[in-house]
Write a structure and sequence with these properties.
alpha+beta; 2 helices; five-stranded antiparallel β-sheet; globular; Beta-Lactamase
């Protein structure tokens, strides 16, 4: 079972535009985004994780833990833990998936994923 407070804790951090928690098959479990967008993003991310896992395995680099994508509008951070995937969209206000002004001026960095 997923703690419902996870989404809320991330939303309170500065720079967070969207948060999705999905299962390893790509089905959204919880999100602060529109359901159709959450489903589409989750499907793309699980496909990306599958390809990244193949690469990590082929290179004999151990196991995949984290993916960070830098885009022109911000960052997409992806953490895989057991059978769950945490997807966080970060960036400046006004970028694509903006959820409005931040609620708390706290730090929003990779360290934020420790809460997952």
């Amino acid at each position: 079972m997923v703690d419902k407070g996870i989404i809320r804790r991330f939303e309170e951090r500065e720079g967070i535009r969207g948060v999705i928690i999905c299962d390893s098959s790509g089905l959204p479990i919880d999100s602060n985004m529109d359901i159709e967008i959450s489903e589409e993003i989750s499907a793309y991310i699980t496909s990306l994780i599958g390809k990244a896992n193949q690469l990590v395995h082929a290179l004999k680099e151990g196991g995949l833990k984290f993916i960070r994508l830098e885009t022109s509008k911000g960052e997409i951070m992806i953490a895989e833990e057991e059978q769950l995937i945490l997807i966080i969209f970060m960036g400046e206000k006004g970028a694509g998936l903006d959820r409005g002004p931040p609620k708390d001026p706290g730090s929003a960095s990779e360290a934020a994923l420790v809460d997952f």
